[in-house]
Design a protein that fits this description.
The chain is built from two helices and two strands, in the order E-E-H-H. The chain starts with a strand and ends with a helix. The protein has helices at residues 28-44, 50-60; strands spanning 5-9, 19-23. It has one domain (5-60). The radius of gyration is 15 Å and the shape is elongated. It is of the alpha+beta class. The protein has a two-stranded antiparallel ribbon.
Length: 64
């Protein structure tokens, strides 16, 4: 399962610009696997709701 995490980010590089961001942080390999699976399932007609597909994929796959 790929879980939602919180990370401290500093997009501007300034000390006062640090903030916490919640999200799913995927490696490039995870992202490539997600795109490949999504494209294959869309081609086969298994995707009816994009958001629920992504949530289900994140719950059922282990992070690389």
């Amino acid at each position: 399962m790929i879980v939602q995490t919180t990370k401290l980010t500093n997009p501007n590089g300034e000390p006062e610009g640090e903030k916490f961001v919640d999200g799913y942080f995927l490696t490039l390999f995870d992202l490539a696997r997600l795109v490949r699976d999504f494209q294959a399932d869309c081609h086969d007609g298994f995707v009816s709701n994009d958001l629920s597909y992504l949530e289900n994929w994140l719950k059922n796959h282990n992070q690389i």
